[in-house]
Amino acid sequence: MSAGLGLAVLSLINLFNYLDRYVVSALFESLKHSALALSDENLGALMSAFLIVYTLSAPMFGALGDRRSRPRLIAAGVGIWSLATVLSGFAGGFLALLAARAAVGVGEAAYGTIAPSLLADYFPAERRGRVMAIFFSAIPIGSALGYVIGGLIDVHFGWRAAFFVAGVPGVMLAALCLRLRDPPRGVQDAAPSAPMPPTRSRATYLRLVRNQPYRLTVLGYAAYTFAVGGLAAWMPAFLERVRGMTRADATVSFGAIVVITGFIGTFVGGWLGDYWAKYSRSAFLWLCALSTLAAAPFVWLALTTASPGLYLFSMIVAQLCLFLSTGPVNAAIVNLVSPLERATAVALSVFSIHFLGDAISPFLIGTVSDATSLAEAVKIVPVAVVVCGLIWVFAARAQDRAPC
Fold first, then answer.
1. Is the pLDDT of residue 59 over 80?
2. What is the mean predicted confidence (pLDDT) over 30-39?
3. Which residues in 99-124 are b (16+ Cβ under 10 Å) and which e?
4. Which residues contact 88 (CB under 8 A, 6 or more apart)?
5. How far is it between the farthest Cα atoms of the chain?
């Protein structure tokens, strides 16, 4: 299978990855008022349980991805998460639903840690910003489809049917994965790395932690994921509960904003990053830092204004600025490390950004909402956006100072 077809298959899997991940957010209000009678803390825990298991599984799959067949590992992961999603639709209580959503994390960890490494070996460094933009543009599209499909199916057929629809396509995608080729590690780099004997995973992780530009990039990404994950999990419920929208309008309108701004922002960010990289080695990180800091005031306005028009304008600008970072930050991560350690580097990144990011924020927002209100709880998000932008400024400066 050619590199272009490989990118298409992996991007399609990424789309369904995020459709599956965010279909549960579209169902929050139904789950809250169903026979399960879940609290906001319970609802936040559904997202956090998935992300905790995803985070804890990532290092294992990262180590395997640097040594074993990457297409086979991805296929296994897709199959596991699809089965777990279907089982979510059969849950008879909170604990059963929590266990099923947690199991989704095992399957997605296999895919999420390995796919960027495989793409880096399909395409040369000068095209990686655009390639990562194409691959990660599936995130807003998949997330939006999760909101829209989940919300519409919920309204017409109930929340259980939404899980069945989200889970079934993964079986076919798992079969497609087995046809992907697995090129030698580093084959697309200017100076391909010579094979070397395997090193212990602990030594690899220690080298990565000592890599200051990589370390700061991942810490900034964690703050970004905290903000974006909290926003993505709670916005449909926020629009219904605080802004008074109907359930269908809340999920469809926010889904439309995400898919349009995400698609445009991700592609523009990838192309801008590749262009700027011709003149600055830290271009990807500077683009991430500046666009995220620009997003912060608009996130605050979108969550606090009572004007529907100002909310719409602010949310569109905020999401556009946030999505500009999607391709560049992932291109920066694979470029800051050795080709032989990329899957491990992505795994450590996945572990860190979710453990410190969206494994916490949905649950934290739900807990604060139970104690105060959802309108107050979501104000955590813009603070995290500012922290993210500042850390990426330090990461860019560290890359500028690092030896070539």
1. no
2. 83
3. bbbbbbbbbbbbbbbbbbbbbbbbbe
4. 24, 97, 100, 101, 104, 163, 167
5. 61
Whether the pLDDT of residue 194 is over 70: the answer is no
Residue 266 domain boundaries:
3-184+204-401
The residue whose two tokens read 């298991």 is 53
Residue 399 has pLDDT above 80, yes or no: yes
- Count of C-beta atoms within a 10 Å radius of residue 224: 27
Distance CA 154, CA 152 (A): 5
Higher pLDDT, 185 or 232: 232
- Which pLDDT value is given to residue 311? 93
Q: Find the length of the chain.
A: 404
3-state SS, residue 168: coil
Domain assignment of residue 25, yes or no:
yes
Measured in degrees and rounded to the nearest 5, phi and psi for residue 9 equal: -65, -45
How many domains does the structure of the chain reveal?
1
* Per-residue pLDDT tens over the stretch 293-345: 999 999 999 999 989 899 999 999 999 999 999 889 988 998 888 877 877 88
Residue 50 has what pLDDT?
Answer: 82
Q: Rounded to the nearest 5°, which phi and psi values hold at 93? A: -165, 175
Domain contains 198: no
The whole-number average pLDDT for the span 248-253 is 82
> Would residue 191 count as lying in a domain?
no
Separation CA 245–CA 227 (nearest Å): 23
Residue 237 CA to residue 82 CA, distance in Å, equals: 25
Distance CA 318, CA 297 (A): 8
* Interacting residues of 395 by C-beta distance below 8 A, sequence separation 6+: 213, 216, 217, 219, 220, 285, 289
Residue 206 CB: number of other CB atoms within 10 A?
11
Portion of the chain with pLDDT greater than 70, in percent = 95
**Count of H-run helices and E-run strands, the chain:** 19, 0
Q: What is the CATH number of the domain that holds 329?
A: 1.20.1250.20
The CA-based angle 356-361-362, given to 5 degrees, is 135
Is residue 395 situated within a structural domain? Answer: yes
pTM of the shown model: 0.73
